[in-house]
Structures are given as structure tokens and as C-alpha cells.
# Entry
Amino acid sequence: QFSKASTSQEVLAMGVSVCLEGLTRYDSPKYVRIQSVTWGCLKGFLYLTVAVCICCIVMIFRLHQEVDEVNSSVRTSVKGVTFTDNRIWDTAEYTIPMQASLNLMSGQYSTSIDTSVAFLTCLCPTYPFTKAICSSDDDCKNGSVDILSNGIQTGRCVVYNATFKTCEVNAWCPVQHMEKPPEPAVLRSSEDFTVLIKNNIKFPKFNHAILNIPTIFNKSCTYNKTIFPLCPIFRLGDIVQEANQKFSEMAVKGGIIAIEIKWDCNLDSWFYDCSPKYGFHRLDDEKIMPGFYFRYAKYYKLPQGEEQRTLYKVYGIRFDVIVFGTGRKFNIIELIKNVGSMISYFGLVASTIEVVIWVVSYSNCSTSAFCKIYNRKKYETVLNPRQVMYVSFVDEPHVTLIKKPLKTSLQHAQGDIVESHPVKFCDAGSCCPSESNEHRDNEESEPMRTTESNKNDDNEEHELRQPLRPGASSPGCPKWCCCGKCQPTQKYHEQLCCRRKKGQCITTSPWFQQLVLSSHTLKKALLYKNPFVDLTDGNINNQMRHLAYRQYVHWRFGSFDLEDRAVIPSCCRWKIRDTYPKEGNNYTGFKME
# Structure
């Protein structure tokens, strides 16, 4: 239980540490700068293009303005008189006002003998439809009501006319006949009537109200899309014509016409514009149940106490007035918000240039030095450390990445060039202290050295000047060795020389002696890491051998980051082992034991 609690505390502490580290750290993206007039001009052109596009979008779609929806009210007034069927028809006769719409009667017929006597109903045969036609009383059910019937059945089958017998119903009698509308329309001359549409609107957010009637209003004008586009007086025939319909045909069965009033207002004082735009189109379908009609009744009380009604079925054209629109006014917050959201479009510039560079890289120009350098600078491939090895040759100015598994010796395996660390190629004088500094260090540390350490240093200097022992420089040099100092081995991953081509071994250079093998340098590094290390310990050779490996990796590979996968050449490895041997010479690993 104590172990579990301790583990939980460690996990919690680790989580808190990661959170605190995230709060105190900022990661910045890495950029590759290309010094080129061509690419620089392309970048400038694309940035300018994106900026112009953003400005155009802001102005065209008016993204710099705040928007408010319109609030509206509509009133209509129809004018016109006609003489039809020996009677005068005026406004009260043919208009039925409704909210935001106008119903214009174009035809009607009536059934004027419907009567009922004081709270009692009349009995009469119903209109002959499929379910109402009968041959005997058994076909009629008392109290039954059909959706197409005009009343409630009494259960009797009576004569309707010379052709049909129908069920008797309790209803307003006689029942209405299913007759076709009169053709031509009764009020076919009503297309010359006019209607005045008064539309008041308000934008509550901006506290701005306006009427569709112009300030200077000519009462004798009639709407015309070209000549008088703002006149609020409309001729009915023109409205139907603008909806691509014929008034004489539409007046027979009726229909529904939409009168659209669109307000698109710019309320900025320097660009003020707020006027309606009218549009017209037919709403009911011309092929599926076209037309428009409704029924209404007028009731009378006779002196004898009988109640009578006249039922009208009216066909007409309904005009629906539909008002919609928006008001806009400049708002700095809207401008900042919309422009800020579009700044991300500048990222398209980098993406476009990347696509162009990619196309160039895979075209005929892919062999150019620019493409090779750019790809090497731009992309860093991170592979599984267990599947790669890094090698460095003294006659090549870069580190090479080799992928496993190997099919030949590591010396001859083909790999990819990876970017080298700057430390590897800096001036030699900055990698280690000069001889004067080294001599000064030796003088300053002289009082601290014992007699035994002086003897060891003398032996070291004598040993470093001697050639390699026969065991380390075999006369039978393997074919993959180019320096003559490598040891033969059957393992592919150990077949590596310090050189790619024939030449002098790196182990014979003064820098190898001073940076990698120098006992004085290694002891200083051990003391720097652990000031209390015992340099007289029998296991000190193992520590110095491991440190020599790391010194070589840092010198030749430029960083300790590659230490785990960096491969030390055979000649260097055996030189280090001969200088700081392990007891029994039983080395366990290829890179570090």
C-alpha cells in the first residue's frame, strides 16, 4: 500500500512539474529563410494580392458594418370603379382587406335560397358525390357525416334529379352546387385598378425609421421599373405582368401574387442610401391545384322569424405584400473582428510558395543545388532510434544516417546526409584550450598533483608517442578499412573505418590524442562532473574509456544527442580500448561497454 501511494505521489508530482514547465516555456516555430530576389518578389506579390482580396471582400460584402433586421408594417388602398352585369363595382365590393395582403375579387357565384326556420334545419338531398349516391335507404346511415358532405345524413335515400338519388341531409338548403367559375371573369376590367402600398419600416438597433413614399411624391405616378422605380402606386395589370402572368387568364380561377419590398439600407452618413426595391412573382403552382377562392355568407332575418343566408363562392387574386431587408452602419468592432478572421488568409502565401518549391523540386530542376540545400534545411526526419545509425568520416564534412537492417558492411552502406552541428566545424582553437592555456592550467594545477600522478602523466606522454601495438594494427587489414588501423570482424555493423577513402588514420592526429585520449583532459572532465571522484580507483579506466567515447562523439558528431546511435569507427574504438583497457579484455558492445 505504501508503494502504491508513493507511485501515485510521483505521478502527481510529475504532472505538476510538466504543467509548470509549460507555463514557463514558449515554443516558436522554425522558419527557413531563402535569400532570393525571385522568391522574395513572389512573396511580396502574393501578400499584396491577398491584401487586395481582403479589402475587396470587406467592401463588397460590407463586413465593416453592423447589421440590423427591418421591422415593418403595411397598409394598402385600392382605387377603381367598373360596371359589370348591370351593376356598379367599387372598392367596397371587390376588395377584402387582410393583414399584409389584399384580396381582389375577380368572379363569384351565389346560392341565395339557403334558409332555416328559427333554430330548425332543412332537409334536402346532398350534392351527388361518390359516397353520397344511393339506391335505397340502406345505403344511407343516420347521423353519418362525410368530409365532402354539406350536412348530417338522416338515413333516407331521396331523388336529387332525374339522374341521381342521394342521401338526405340536415343542412342549409338547397346545398351548394359544384360549378365552375364564370368565364370570362366578372371583373376582368379590374386590371386597370391601382393600389397604393404604404410601408413603414424601422431599424430598432439604429433607431432609424423611414416610409416607402418619397419626400417629393407625385400622386399621379404609376410604378414603372425603369421610369418610376420608387413610386408606391401600382397598376394591378402591371403587377401580374411583372410576375410573367396574364391577368385575363389568372382572373378566372384566381391566384396568389407576391409583392416583395426589399430594403437594403446603408445608414452611414457619408454613403447614405435607403430606398425600397420591388419584385413580383406568383406563389401558387400553375400545374398542381392552381387558383385561389374562398366562401362567405350573408345572413338575413325574415319578418316571419325565418333565417336566410346567401352563400358566395368568390374567386380572386390575392396580393401578399412581403417586406424584408437589412440596415447597415459602420462599426469599428465589426471591422476588426472580420478583418482579424481573414488575416489567416495570409497563411495561403506560405502554402502557395511551398507548393511552388515542391513542384520545382520534382521537376527538371530537382538536381539544382538550391533544391538540395532547401530540402536539407527544411525537413528533419525523426526515425526510430533503434532502426538508424549515424556515422562520420574524417574526409567528409557531414554526418551520414544509415538505416537498418544492413545488407553489407557499414563502411559501404548508403545513407542520407543530415545537418551537422556547428561545433563540429568551428575553429579548432575554440574546441579546446590553446597550448599556452593548457600550460597555464598545468602550472596552476601542479601543486595539487601527487608524485604518483606525475609519473602516470609522464608514462602517458611516452605512450601516446609510440606506434600502435601489433594487436591493434593487424597486418591483415580488412578490405573495408581505408586507414590500415581497423580490426577484422564478421559483423556488418562493426565494419566501419574513420575514412571513406584511403588516407591517414584519424588516431594519428594530434587532435585525437589531445581531445580523446589525453588522460589529463579526461580526468579534468571527470572532476568537473564529480569533484569528489577517486582517480586512484581501480575502476577508473572504465570511466575514462566511456568518457573517451563520448568525447569522440562530441568532437566528430557535434552533439551528445547522437550518442546512443553514433557509431565509433573500429580504428578509434580499438585505440581507445588499448589506451584504457578493460580487465580481461572482454568488451561487450560495439559502441560503448
In short: Residues 121 and 171 are 6 Å apart (CA to CA). The longest strand covers residues 306-330. The chain has 15 helices and 19 strands.
